[in-house]
Design brief:
Blueprint (H helix, E strand, L loop, with lengths): L1 H28 L8 H30 L4 H9 L3 H16 L1 H6 L1 H4 L1 H28 L4 H27 L7 H15 L4 H6 L1 H4 L2 H45 L1
Helix pairs in contact: 1-2, 1-12, 2-3, 2-4, 2-12, 3-12, 4-7, 7-8, 8-9, 9-12
């Protein structure tokens, strides 16, 4: 337990530093990206900035207890007392921004605002269902009918987003996309398909494992999810935006 807690404790710091460095990198790329795509940079800066601040806050909250060599039970209780509303509020803001990067990277003129609005509403519903379900489960100390219903609703909305994105990507003419743009959209779909399953896994850690281990595993799982689905995601999106900008500049220069 001590080793697992130490890994989780330092994972907060690692996630904070990784997200902060990502923000620095994104800002450095800003001048190289055409104005039409700079909203992608702004969204990733906000997402990773929030991630860095939140993880640093959690790390700083635990630091006095760790430096004071508090008992493992006290440390675990401190982890379990992190406000659920803060975490889900953070997820609500950041995941809506993440999912809107699909229409932005494809081009809103190609897919329409209805596609973007549908994704945003489905994502907001998924996160809200997760909050209600986890709140019910934590209050009861076990899985409840409400938590299972909310989990099913969240999974249904997640699948609906996947289907919607897949249909749009399948219809896109490949000759209208540069390789980096096409590849990144594929990676992003894979992240939604596989990477986002990290969070439902953490959802049930507190009931699948002994309570102390479950809380620590939940936080470690969520930190891993944020590292993959925010920092690495952002690096891929900014790379694609930079390559699209470069290709358009070269095409403009040829046509001039």
């Amino acid at each position: 337990m001590t080793t697992l807690f130490s890994l989780t404790y330092f994972s907060f710091l690692f996630c904070s530093l990784a997200a902060f460095l990502a923000v620095v990198y994104f800002l450095a790329q800003f001048p190289r990206i055409e104005p039409k795509l700079r909203l992608l940079v702004l969204l990733n800066v906000i997402i990773c900035g929030l991630s860095s601040a939140l993880h640093l806050y959690y790390f700083a909250s635990l630091q006095p207890l760790v430096s004071g060599a508090a008992e493992p039970a006290i440390l675990i209780r401190a982890l379990g007392e992190f406000p659920l509303s803060v975490r889900y509020g953070y997820w609500l803001i950041t995941t809506v921004m993440l999912i809107l990067m699909f229409p932005l990277l494809i081009g809103v003129e190609r897919v329409g605002t209805g596609f973007a609005l549908g994704l945003a509403l489905a994502d907001a519903g998924m996160i809200s269902a997760g909050y209600v379900g986890e709140q019910s489960m934590l209050s009861a100390g076990e899985a409840t009918n409400l938590s299972l219903l909310c989990f099913a609703l969240g999974v249904t909305l997640w699948v609906s987003m996947l289907i919607s994105i897949y249909r749009v990507l399948r219809k896109l003419p490949s000759d209208e996309l540069i390789p980096a743009q096409r590849d990144t959209l594929g990676y992003m779909f894979f992240f939604i398909l596989v990477g986002w399953t990290i969070y439902p896994a953490g959802y049930f850690h507190t009931v699948l494992f002994e309570q102390g281990i479950g809380v620590v595993l939940r936080e470690f799982t969520f930190n891993l999810g944020d590292l993959v689905n925010k920092v690495i995601w952002g690096l891929l999106v900014i790379h694609a935006a930079r390559e699209i900008s470069r290709a358009r500049r070269e095409r403009f220069a040829r046509d001039a």
